[in-house]
Structure formats: C-alpha cells, structure tokens
Design a protein that fits this description.
The protein has 1 helix and 28 strands. By secondary structure, it is mainly β.
Length: 311
C-alpha cells in the first residue's frame, strides 16, 4: 500500500495552481476556509478532519471520531469550532483549541451528507439520506426544528446552507428541487425547479438576493430569490457539477465537476473566466478564500489544491 504523504508538494503544477498536496486517503470530500481566512479544514474518506495553516500548508491537527467517511465540515464564525457530518450518521461539534469533540448530535437515521453553521454560531444545520433537515442548538445539542417534505417527495438531502443573515435555509434535494425554508420552524417558502437533476450543491449570494444551484447535470442555475425566476445558466461542464460557490463580493462563481475541471464564471455575464484541470479525478469541493484571491479544491484523487483566482 502506498504511503500517504500529507502536505507533500506535487511539482507538476498546472498553470494558475499555487500548491497541491495529498490531504486524505482516497477521496477529499470537502475543503473550507475559516471566516477570517486564517485556517483551512478538509475532510475525507479516511474518516478524518484535518486542519491546515494556509501560510505554509502545514497540518495543524487531525480530528478523529467519525466511524467512517466525513462528508462535510463547517466553521463557526469565531473560527474556533467546527461542525462535521459523516456516513456514520453523526453530526459532531469540535473545539479547535483543544482538538477534542465537544458533543455528538444524534437524530439522523442514516448517512449525513451536509452541514452548515449559522452566522451567529448558535445553530447548525444537517441533512442526509433519511431525507430530513435538522436545525440544532449548539449550546445544548438539542434539535430545534426538523423539516421533512415527505419520504418519496424530497429524496436524499445533499446540501444545506444558511443565508448570510441566518433567517433562511437552502436545501438541495434528490427530487431535482432546491427549497427555501424560513426561520426557526423550517417552514418551506419556495421551491425552485429547473435543474432537471438531483440538486447536489446550493448557495445563497452574499447579498441574499439570488440562489445558485448545480447537480448531476451539466448546468449551473442562478435564480432570483424574491421571484423564484431563473436569471442565468452557466454552461460548459460535461459532467456532474458537485460543488458551486460565490466569491465574497458575489461577482464570481466557482464550480467543480466530475469532469475533473474547476471553472470560474462572471456572475453578471455568465462568461467563463478561467478553467483548471489538473486534478486526476472528479472535483468534489470548491470554494473561494475570504479575500477572493485564491480558490481551494478537493478531489477524489485525495488532494487539496490551491489556485490563483482570476479577477
């Protein structure tokens, strides 16, 4: 078996690629930045969460506790805590100062695919194969609310995200819909159609006026949140688009696909600004750094890559 050389530099860098290294055995499922950009966390098939120093990409710590693959991690606003979810059906809260698990949040009946933390750091969201979305109180570890649109209607929940003001929740569903839920009760207020395929990734724009979605098809859609009308489509990928994200100013969009490419788009015009294709397998996660200068990606090839973002 080949040894995992964590943090080892790969010298065959693509144009625009700043750094690439092995982050996890087999798959790197997600890469995310702390709100201030001072930290980066990744998770993978190996059941570990790894924290990295973006100054030199040295590993700070590895958090172990999940019994199988970890699918997503999300920073709390203070950058000192993480929430994670995994195929073991658990949601976990971690203290990064101590490297220890604070508590395990129990309630899902099956793998959990997505998590997010509210802008005030007091609540967390999770969704998964049991076809439900759960809102958690992080102080007590209790369930604050739960959404289920019906077992056969919603299908698996692949993506959950808070709006920037924390008042709305975005849910990407297997049933080809993206749903907007409201407030503390998770009452559905809007259902967006148009992808025509399972919704794998969804995100609010930084100003909360638009919604971005992608899935197992080859298009990225942008909707107006107030009207539910489609604004624009972004075309170019030739495989499932597993991850989409806005830059902090909302002017650019980054996408990662099973076609092994990362693409950067101009939000206003829909034009492709850049394309990167140095991953050896499907791209599972993409995000901008908070300052918008770099893009981070995670892939089925187990690597984490850092790219120079186009203006």
């Amino acid at each position: 078996m080949a040894l995992l050389c964590l943090g080892c530099r790969d010298t065959e860098l693509e144009k625009g690629e700043i750094r690439r290294f092995k982050a996890h055995e087999l798959y790197t499922f997600q890469v995310t930045c702390s709100p201030d950009g001072g930290g980066v966390a990744s998770c993978g098939f190996d059941g570990l969460i790894r924290a990295w120093d973006p100054k030199d990409w040295a590993e700070i710590q590895a958090l172990a506790g999940h019994q199988s693959a970890v699918r997503e991690v999300a920073y709390a606003p203070d950058g000192k805590r993480l929430v994670s979810c995994g195929l073991d059906g658990s949601v976990r809260l971690w203290d990064l100062d101590t490297g220890r698990q604070v508590r395990q949040l129990e309630g899902h009946e099956g793998p959990v695919y997505s998590v997010d933390v509210s802008p005030d750091g007091r609540r967390a969201l999770s969704g998964g194969a049991d076809r439900t979305v759960t809102l958690w109180d992080l102080d007590s570890g209790s369930q604050a609310a739960r959404f289920s649109g019906g077992y056969w209607e919603v299908g698996d929940v692949f993506s959950v995200r808070f709006s920037p003001d924390g008042e709305k929740v975005l849910v990407g569903c297997e049933d080809k819909s993206i749903r907007v839920l409201e407030g503390p009760t998770l009452k559905q207020s809007l259902r967006l159609e148009g992808l025509g395929v399972a919704a794998m990734s969804a995100s609010f724009s930084p100003d909360s006026k638009a919604i971005l979605g992608s899935g197992s098809g080859k298009s990225i859609l942008l909707w107006d949140l107030s009207t539910g009308e489609e604004i624009r489509r972004f075309e170019g990928h030739v495989g499932t688009i597993r991850s989409v994200a806005f830059s902090e100013d909302g002017a650019r969009i980054v996408s990662g696909s099973f076609d092994r490419t990362i693409r950067v788009w101009d939000t206003g015009s829909g034009l492709e600004l850049a394309r990167y294709d140095n991953h050896g397998d499907a791209v599972y996660s993409v995000t901008f750094s908070p300052d918008g200068r770099t893009i981070l990606s995670g892939s089925y090839d187990g690597t984490l890559s850092v790219w120079s973002a186009p203006n």
